[in-house]
Amino acid sequence: MKVTEHLERAKGKTLFSIEVLPPQKGKTIDDLLHVVEPLMEFKPPFIDVTYHREEIIYKKRPDGLVEEVPLRRRPGTVGICAALRTKFNVDAVPHLVCGGFTPEETEDALFTLYYLGINNVMLLQGDADKNPKSVHAKPSAYKYASDLVAQVADMNRGKFLHEETENEMKTNFCIGVAGYPEKHFEAPNLSNDLKWLKHKVDCGADYIVTQMFYDNQKFFEFQEKCIAKGIKAPIIPGLKPLATKGQLTTLAKLFHIDIPEALATEVEKCKDDRAVKKVGIEWCIAQSKELKKAGVPCLHYYTMSRSEATIEIARSVF
After folding, report:
1. Which CATH class is domain 3-317?
2. What is the structure's pLDDT at 136?
3. Which CA distances in Å does 18 have to 69, 111, 195, 212?
4. What pTM was estimated for this model as a whole?
């Protein structure tokens, strides 16, 4: 079932959903299934599975020279989606990114998903190539997520690459995209960022999931500004509880978000990360309850493939 259909069938009830990471090489899918299983208590109608572009590592050869080797540390997004559907009877939402993939590779991946019966996709710009001058660097299919959205929307109409006419067979993907309550770091301001978010929706996006945030007022203002821009797609807030004191700086730096002064003050008082985790959970519970009371369609939790904090939050909120 499509994400948008789940939202419609909920009839105003706030749903619960999660995002997980594929296990790193060397770990088995059972490690991930053991994370997801206790969260099924809260009946998530869909689970997002992230996708990661290849990295370049440097290895010393027997002759003493150093060579570049392309490596995917978290392979198997498509297979994991299929496994989640089979084991838990839940809709899986694979992420697809622009970076490092040709249009043909993207189309092939989409056909594989279609044949597996997976009809939801989250389309993202993806991380920048850390080694753009590498001999193994692959030109990106697209620079912006809106281009990726347009390709999937074309496939939904039966328009495929290198074919002059539309096909009788059409895909039926429900398209999710990212929204940024505190603006995308590349945008000069929020108004400009919302212009491009509307462009993604106009290209064919069906719903929006936000970047994590810790100030609900910023989400509510973002929501109002989206409506003012004519963005009618459902907006799902994304949440992640703080877990360590170091995240005060790492999350702010990596995701270009603000940590509210009140939250930062409480975290700085903590003697260890166990105390930080408690503060983070309590803050996220308060956020979740306020957002649920405001009638958001779904609360989406970035688990980082750990279930303990999300379980505690969900038991207090759902």
Report:
1. alpha beta
2. 47
3. 33, 25, 27, 12
4. 0.91
